[in-house]
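Need a sequence for this fold. Nothing fancy.
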């Protein structure tokens, strides 16, 4: 993956996580990128996603975008990152096929257990996604990049307001 600006760091993911501390940041980074590309861009749209990235790159993050990032994007992105990590950290694709990781003196989990954990993380991500969307709708005037189309008013009307949960 290209070296793009991440909205959260691996250390932030580690603060929320229930796994052993000290996970290699280089291991976590691709999962953050994937979660950011798949979920955050889907919710924010490309223009609004690029705005805080540009501000982070130029060290010009203002109060509005800091609030958006820290209070609303970060929780959703963290839980989505953790959901993205569950299966690949439990199972690996090797030359011999898909194998389960075995650590020294660690009891392995079943696919059912891994899916339960992934579902728990996705439920949390979905909650924060709903909260993020509600915040953006209530504060759309502070984030003009959120809606740059002619159909914005129709798309965000109460009758058409739908929050995808999966």
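Here you go.
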């Amino acid at each position: 993956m290209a070296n793009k600006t991440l909205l959260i760091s691996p250390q932030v993911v580690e603060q929320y996580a229930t796994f052993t501390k000290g996970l290699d940041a280089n291991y976590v980074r691709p999962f953050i990128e994937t979660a950011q590309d798949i979920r955050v861009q889907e919710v924010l749209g490309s223009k609004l996603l690029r705005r805080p990235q540009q501000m982070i790159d130029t060290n010009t993050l203002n109060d509005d975008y800091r609030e958006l990032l820290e209070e609303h994007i970060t929780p959703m992105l963290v839980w989505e990152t953790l959901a993205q990590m569950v299966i690949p950290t439990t199972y690996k694709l090797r030359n011999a096929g898909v194998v389960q990781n075995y650590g020294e003196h660690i009891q392995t989990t079943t696919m059912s257990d891994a899916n339960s954990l992934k579902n728990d993380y996705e439920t949390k991500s979905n909650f924060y996604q709903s909260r993020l969307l509600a915040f953006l709708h209530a504060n759309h005037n502070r984030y003009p990049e959120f809606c740059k189309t002619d159909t914005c008013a129709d798309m965000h009307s109460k009758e058409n307001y739908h929050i995808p949960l999966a």
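For context: Residues 63-90 form the longest helix (28 residues).
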